[in-house]
Write a structure and sequence with these properties.
Number of helices: 17
Strand content: under 5%
Order of helices and strands: HHHHHHHHEHHEHHHHHHH
Shape: elongated
Low-confidence stretches: none
Number of strands: 2
Strand order of the largest sheet: 1-2
Distance between the termini: 81 Å
Mean pLDDT: 90
């Protein structure tokens, strides 16, 4: 389909889908006219602009250009962006859907599905699945997953408020993520409990796999359900905020559960991790905890000292 001169309005413009992000809608518009996305942006008067930059911060002038050529209001265009997120949260926004909703069209990418802490489609209210089609209930079991959902929702709300610069509780969600991703003891091969049931020949065949050291992180102590359910080689998460930005659906869900638990009870889960740590791990945990409020650290270390005393007295 041939396009009219750059100053005219496009003859056919599909409406944005519910919660659709700007890059997805512009890409569908480009496909409708058999254009590349760059060619469409050039036609709209936005040559050499990055579509992901536009949906992160859409200046009024550039929004007006798109509005004039598509018929959408500047407000509708702004609603498809991530303008209300802090710059620090950009690392969390994936370029496409992180997760899959069985009822959303394949060519529609939503703002919610770009964020690692969204576990349910806001349009259809259906749980997201991984890109391979695996649901969280398949991993944990429906009963355990139902018990964890409340804590995951609490953690997701903390992360969402953090990304909008509206978080009031301390420590910040970022500091909690850093703690959860910290190695509390040395890496070690899979324990007997963690190993799959194999024959003697199978153990010989998979000897290298069974003896591969696995990072041991605070997340697995805080969320033991994840420790029991997660496959061995994908159990460790990345350090820092990369833990979320590069997380799978299962990892992101476990991190949200961990944040939810530490939001509800800031002291006991941290003491449990410290009690399970080795000496180098305790040092790493204390380094991670330096980002937490001093008052919280004093309560944690006082409880930790008493727990150590009680253990020695047994």
């Amino acid at each position: 389909m041939m396009l009219e001169p750059v100053t005219s309005r496009l003859p056919v413009v599909p409406p944005p889908a519910a919660d659709e992000r700007l890059s997805s809608w512009l890409n569908r518009l480009a496909t409708l006219y058999a254009l590349s996305l760059d060619a469409l942006l050039d036609h709209l008067g936005l040559a050499r602009r990055n579509v992901f930059d536009l949906e992160w911060r859409l200046p009024a002038g550039e929004g007006a250009l798109i509005a004039r050529r598509t018929g959408l209001s500047p407000q509708a265009l702004q609603a498809m962006t991530f303008h209300n997120r802090m710059p620090e949260a950009r690392i969390m926004v994936a370029s496409k859907n992180r997760y899959h909703c069985s009822l959303c069209p394949d060519d529609v990418h939503t703002r919610a599905a770009a964020l690692p802490w969204a576990f349910c489609c806001p349009v259809h209210r259906t749980p997201y699945t991984s890109r391979t089609g695996e649901a969280l209930s398949d991993v944990f079991g429906s009963g355990i997953c139902a018990d964890l959902n409340e804590q995951a929702d609490r953690g997701a709300k903390r992360l969402d408020m953090w990304s909008r610069g509206q978080e009031e509780a301390a420590p910040a969600a970022g500091a909690i993520v850093k703690f959860l991703a910290t190695r509390h003891r040395r890496s070690s091969p899979a324990s007997v409990r963690e190993q799959p049931r194999l024959s003697l020949q199978g153990r010989c065949d998979y000897h290298a796999f069974l003896n591969q050291p696995i990072a041991r992180q605070a997340l697995c102590v805080t969320v033991p359900e994840y420790d029991r359910a997660a496959p061995l080689l994908v159990k460790p998460v990345r350090p820092g905020f990369h833990a979320l930005s590069q997380a799978s659906l299962l990892q992101a869900y476990a991190l949200a559960v961990g944040i939810g638990r530490l939001t509800e009870n800031l002291i006991d889960p941290v003491v449990d991790v410290l009690m399970a740590s080795d000496v180098p791990g305790e040092w790493r945990l204390r380094e991670a905890l330096k980002q937490w409020p001093l008052s919280s650290r004093r309560r944690i270390y006082a409880r930790f000292w008493r727990a150590q005393r009680d253990e020695r007295a047994r």
